[in-house]
């Protein structure tokens, strides 16, 4: 279970939120600048709160009384809005980036399952500039899950996609969540997307859950 308490002074308001997440998809929904991405970045260790407590399955990520846990030790998959793929690496190398024991039989089986669900096996030798936006999104999602995270963070992952591709990727995310059964936090501005994907929707406004 993910437990989040974050207090952080931002330029125009105080971000002050508390919530818990089981093995479910929770939507962070609200206007731009309401603190949604700051919540994801605080959980990931990119941003440090002023106060609070963040822990996942008993492992403390952040407690003001102690040194924050390094990002690499948090067992988190993070899919950024711009996907952040390495342009000089093939799709295969992007997906395998950060994966330990790449030749392990179980690890290879896991990655092959990801490639099958996301339908991107044929893209492995290509580079990011050679694939479409939807294919980049699928590659980034595969990379985020290939490390077998215990938590998945998604920052507006489908916002740049056309309608048909967005619907396909939403369905693929739901299928992957049925397989993984881990907490997922997803930021979106799309009300239909929030209703379709979310087990719960947290509406943020000026740093508070309304």
UniProtKB/TrEMBL annotation:
Residue stretches making up the ABC transporter domain: 1-210
Pfam families in alphabetical order: ABC_tran
Coiled-coil portions: none
Keywords noted in UniProt: ATP-binding, Nucleotide-binding, Transport
PROSITE patterns xrefs: ABC_TRANSPORTER_2
Single GO molecular function: ATP binding
Domain of life: Bacteria
InterPro entries to which the protein is assigned, alphabetical: AAA+_ATPase (IPR003593), ABC_SmlMolc_Importer (IPR050093), ABC_transporter-like_ATP-bd (IPR003439), P-loop_NTPase (IPR027417)
SUPFAM superfamilies named in the record: P-loop containing nucleoside triphosphate hydrolases
Record protein name field: ATP-binding cassette domain-containing protein
Top-level taxonomy: Bacteria, Bacillati, Bacillota, Bacilli, Bacillales
């Amino acid at each position: 279970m993910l437990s989040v308490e974050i207090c952080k002074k931002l330029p125009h308001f105080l971000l002050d939120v508390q919530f818990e997440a089981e093995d479910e998809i929770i939507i962070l929904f609200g206007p731009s600048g309401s603190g949604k991405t700051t919540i994801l970045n605080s959980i990931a260790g990119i941003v440090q709160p002023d106060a609070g407590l963040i822990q996942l399955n008993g492992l403390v990520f952040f407690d003001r009384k102690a040194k924050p846990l390094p990002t690499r030790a948090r067992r988190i998959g993070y899919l950024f809005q711009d996907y952040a793929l390495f342009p000089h690496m093939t799709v295969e190398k992007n997906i395998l980036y950060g994966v330990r024991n790449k030749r392990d039989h179980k690890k290879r089986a896991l990655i092959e399952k990801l490639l099958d669900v996301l339908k991107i096996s044929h893209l492995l030798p290509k580079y990011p500039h050679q694939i479409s936006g939807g294919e980049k999104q699928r590659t980034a999602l595969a990379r985020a899950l290939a490390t077998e995270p215990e938590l998945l963070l998604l920052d507006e992952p489908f916002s740049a996609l056309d309608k048909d591709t967005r619907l396909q990727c939403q369905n693929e995310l739901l299928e992957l969540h049925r397989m993984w059964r881990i907490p997922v936090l997803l930021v979106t501005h799309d009300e239909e997307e929030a209703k379709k994907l979310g087990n719960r929707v947290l509406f943020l406004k000026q740093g508070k859950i309304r």
